[in-house]
Amino acid sequence: MTTRFLLAAILFLCSWRADAGIFNPEIFSLDNGMQVVVVPNHRVPVVTHMVWYKVGSADEGPGESGIAHFLEHLMFKGTPTYPGASFSTIVAQNGGQQNAFTSYDYTAYFQTVARDRLELMMELEADRMTNLELSERDVATEREVVIEERRSRVENSPGARLREQLNAALYLNHPYRRPVIGWHHEIAGLDYDRIIAFYRKWYAPNNAILVVAGDITAEELKPLAEKYYGVIPRADTPPRDWLEEPPHQAARTIELRDPRVRQPSWQRTYMAPSYLYGASEHVDALQIMAEILGGGSTSRLYRALVIDGGLAVSAGAWYNPDSRGPGTFTVYASPAPGVSLDEVAAAVDAEIAALIADGVTEDERKRAVDGIGASVIFARDSLSTGARIIGSALAAGQSIDIVEDWTERIAAVTPEQILAATGAVFDERRSVTARLVPEAGQ
Amino acid sequence: MRQPARYAGLALAAMIIVALARPAAAVEVEEVVGESGVTAWLVEDRTNPIISVRFAWRGGAAVDPAGKAGLANLVSGLLDEGAGDLDSKAFQRRLDEHSISLSFSAGKDSFSGSLTMLTGKADEAWHLLDLALSEPRFDEEPVARIGGQILAGLRQDEEDPDAIAGKTLMQALYPGHPYANPTDGTVASVEGLTRDDLRAFVRERLARDNLVIGVVGDIGADELAVAIDRVFGHLPAVAEDGTVADVDAPDEGGLRVVRKNVPQSSILFAQRGPDRHHEDFYALYVVNHVLGGGGFTARLYNEVREKRGLAYSVYSYMAPYDHAAMIAGGAGTVNARVGETIEVIRAEWERMATDGISEAELEDAKKYLTGSYPLRFTSSGNIADMLVGLQLDGLGRDYFDIRNGLIDAVTLEQANDAARRWLDPDSLTIVVVGDPDGIGDGG
User: Fold this and answer.
1) Is the pLDDT of residue B11 over 50?
2) What span, in angstroms and rounded, lies between the C-alpha atoms of B431 and B330?
3) Is a pLDDT exceeding 50 seen at residue B354?
4) Fewest beta carbons less than 10 Å away: which of A17, A109, A339, B287?
5) Helix (H) and strand (E) counts for chain A?
6) Do B145 and A146 touch (CB under 8 A)?
């Protein structure tokens, strides 16, 4: 007990140091409600400028799956001030690299540029927040591009098709059951009017977060943020829906058979608590548990199935606690030649049973915590990692403390708490087991 | 009312070109030589308590002995799987306990390694790398396990359109040459590899005369000199001769179709290009940027994706291997429109060869290529990778300082002359993997 109190005392003292957090951002808000985050990193005169909208595929209405992602593509089609492709042209002329991405909970746009080009990027990004000008032709052509993207990411890959089916089976009610990129037939039906309506509904300063990471301070950024983003009027953005799952009463198993499968695989995904949904008191413990059970080549699953048992060519676990809605906890294995999916499934289940029965050792806990601590230092080495982690957390609705106090909370988790957390995940009724097999059967 | 702001933005853009002339002014590359003669390039950076080490030996998968394709790749999977008195589990556990990342990989022309550590764990990290290089165990269990993982990947690749296209393209371009052998081998070649082959690879290929090292982070020259002696100083002085013949892509291109029942065809294409030291390299590098480079502004992007919606991804790039250089590219498109996509790509190739680029395109390309160069210096791992790349390519220690000048020096005449002399749609070797409509299966 003495050691633990001492540790707690040190952590308490640390929390008063200015640099005690992970990325040490400065956060403020503009009068129109737009949140601004600065993540200083003065190593090179470069900045990453990101705008995150608190809208993603989970906010789409019935029949319009894929609209958030489709709109993300169309955001590069121009405004009256910067028509056509001028956005991309100007970014490129300034040596900038840019892109955008859409997830269940958010849509984000970013440019990485030399620090003295930041102001221009802010002007461009602020302009397209409310001034997008689309033609019917833009929508028609880009629809083909999006469908090609879907073909290449999903339809060409049996494994990706199975993951899509898995999510549709896992969530009984929550919109995470629909793919972010959308169902093919619904993308085909998305038209100009629906897309513009979605844009007007969600794209507003009061529903956006500006994150700038790199060679900049809050003092320097604030006047620029006010000049470009602060002048955009607040909009009457509706609150995001909060949807809950009913009790899951039946374990589900799905199987995708395809002649193109040459390496079978097995996975089971459990609906799990996230920081914002369900039994969130277990989330920190579950991250350590996932690391011990299936994080890399020293984990229990890899050792038991791949090294000692020779049953599998790969095995592991991963946990996603960061979503606004339910999280997921996944265990997976790909069998070695001559081994059946049922055999690897039984071996994974045996490891889970041992974990539930005996918990983890102090040694395992300590190694996992040390690894997480080191990962934070490595994360600081990159310019954009902090901006991405903070942006995605805030856009999903987390508080900044969830990010910044992560290592302290992780360090305080006890083996008893890890054992207790197993109960928040390992109930087969909340899971989908997915089997990927060659067409002829195994 | 928005118009003035727009001009202000452009003026700002013009003003800053000067400031960017030396993109990496803050990055000073130091040469560190150990007593053994082993040399490393170092960028000392005390920002974070991290040391990123990258190293490579010339001679990669292309020098795998006949019938043993995939040897370098298998070794790369096994060097962190047990060494000295540490078996695989013990070795991996030591890495894990000290948060040390160690990995190896095989390319066509080089065999490389990556070691990343916290400063406080440097002694242990150097020790484990030393063990891995001097006393790798190649125990039966990890050899079977990692070999099994590679075979599982190869089996998956047999039905992956992109993987099939990549292998088919290299076979079409360089039949009979080692470049036609897949880096990760074939099921038959990998199954035939023995522990003796692995030991021979380490003995013969990992020497001092073909080694380059790049280090970035929280370490000084004196400390690094000691570390590289300790880790690399005992390697054999000279690697066994592993010559690879120079080879060229054929003058006459062609179309190969590999039929697979997938909704979207994977298209890859390539023709001969200038090697890294050819006088046309930078001119064609600029031309390629206009044709199919990054930044969402290239002609192929505009014609194939923006105007016609034919593909999500379409691109071209310079691929100067040590023994064969090419300009290559790719696209993915629905089976019904493969013919149209290839026509558009060939037409753009022809237009570039005939008309070249405009003065405005040249200026825009230079602004992007020089302005984005500093963005590569945003993590210690990236910089260390570049230090190794420069040495493998035979470029100077001042390259970070002179590189943008080399781009800026390209004239419109040089660019268009290079485009005319190099680009030839008839010499494009094109591979399509999928079920394309309306095109013959070629040969």
Assistant:
1) no
2) 9
3) yes
4) A17
5) 17, 11
6) no
Q: Out of B313, B373, B379, name the one closest to residue A382 (CB).
A: B379
* Strand pairing class (B211-217; B254-259): unpaired
Window 219-248 of B, Cβ < 8 Å to A: none
Q: What is the tens place of the pLDDT at every residue in A277-308?
A: 999 999 999 999 999 999 999 999 999 999 99
- What distance in Å separates residue B130's CA from the closest CA in chain A? 21
Bridge partners of residue B255, in order along the sequence: B430
User: A with B: how many residue pairs have Cβ under 8 Å apart?
Assistant: 200
CA quadruple B316, B322, B324, B325: dihedral sign: positive
Of A148, A119, A285, the residue nearest A216 (C-alpha) = A119
Pick the catalytic residue from A72, A291, A351, A364: A72
Distance CA A110, CA A52 (A): 9
DSSP string, B270-325: EEE---TTSTTHHHHHHHHHHHH-SSS-SHHIIIIIITT---S-EEEEEEE-SS-E
Q: Sign of dihedral through CA atoms A225, A228, A230, A236?
A: negative
Cα–Cα dist B406/B401, whole Å: 10
B385: CB partners within 8 A, 6+ apart: B54, B214
Residue A407: its pLDDT value, please?
Answer: 95
Backbone torsion region of residue B82, taken as left when φ is above 0, otherwise alpha when ψ lies between -120 and 50, otherwise beta = left
Spell out which residues of chain A touch residue B368, defining contact as CB-CB under 8 Å. 92-93, 95
Categorize the per-residue pLDDT at B27 as very low, low, confident or very high, splitting at 50, 70 and 90: confident
Q: Do A378 and B161 touch (CB under 8 A)?
A: no
ipTM rounded to 2 decimals: 0.91
Residue among B144, B367, B377 whose CB faces A94 most closely: B367
Query: Which chain A residue is nearest to residue B49, measuring alpha carbons?
Result: A377
Q: CA dihedral in degrees (B364, B370, B374, B375; nearest 10)?
A: 40
pLDDT bracket for residue B442 (50, 70, 90): low
Q: What angle do CA B411, B413, B415 make, to 5 degrees?
A: 70
For chain B, give me the number of helices (H) and strands (E)? 16, 11
Contacts of B216 (CB under 8 A, 6+ apart): B42, B43, B45, B51, B52, B380, B381, B383, B384, B387
As a whole number of angstroms, the distance between CA B335 and CA B439 comes to 10
Enumerate the residues of chain B whose CB falls inside 8 A of the CB of residue A377.
Answer: 48-50, 118
- Residue A72 designated active-site: yes
Mean pLDDT of B96-115: 97
Whether B358 and chain A come into contact, CB under 8 Å, resolves to: no
Whether residues B264 and A152 touch (CB distance < 8 A) is answered with yes
Amino acid residing at B117? M
Confidence (pTM): 0.93
Which residues in B306-333 are b (16+ Cβ under 10 Å) and which e?
A: bebbbbbbbbbbbebbbbbbbbbbbbbb
Strands of B101-106's sheet in order across: B30-33, B39-44, B211-217, B50-58, B110-118, B101-106
Q: Nearest chain B residue to A156 by CA: give it.
A: B262
Q: Output A31-34 pairs: Cβ under 8 A, ≥24 positions apart.
A: A31/A230, A32/A205, A32/A206, A32/A229, A32/A230, A32/A232, A32/A233, A32/A234, A33/A205, A33/A206, A33/A234, A34/A205, A34/A206, A34/A208, A34/A209, A34/A210, A34/A225, A34/A229, A34/A230, A34/A232
